[in-house]
User: Fold this.
Amino acid sequence: MGIFKRLREDICSAREHDPAARSDVEVVLVYSGLHAIWSHRVAHRMWGVRPLKTPARVLSQVTRGLTGIEIHPGAHIGRRFFIDHGMGVVIGETAEVGDDCMLYQGVTLGGTSLEQTKRHPTLGNGVVVGAGAKVLGPVEIGEQSAVGANAVVVKSAPAHSVLVGVPAKDRKRRQEEHRPLVDPASYALDPALFI
Assistant:
């Protein structure tokens, strides 16, 4: 996928996830979550090149200072990822985030080990993590799951789960709680959308 199509996809994803977004220009100029994701993509590419690991970390720290969002350059982030409001979001080095995921402010995808292993969470496609939630350790959250605000998740959960509480307990997501999947084909580049 070309860079302009990917940027367009990110902008459309932000507009679909945030009803307060009035225009593409506004999204590009003021959405710190989008800025953090774009910066992460550059840092992640740098991270894959051995002599550029330190500059990748520097870029991620500069981005953290500007946006309040810290994404380690080693983290794997899927397509159409959206961070709403963003301040205080932390995503660790071995975290994996699937396509169409969304995080709210204050979310931590953190580790629980000091070992050089997979120590951060894996979120399946379409996972939503509520404000202030902590997902800790190498747990896996199945696709189309939702983590409630301020939940602390320390155990894996199957697809279509709702996780709430401290520590979080999961239950099957009811039909009316499912959010519709977005058709990526709807992200066609239309200049009229920039107004």
About this structure: The chain is about 25% helix and 20% strand. The radius of gyration is 16 Å. Residues 189-195 have pLDDT under 50 and may be disordered. The chain has one domain: 3-176.
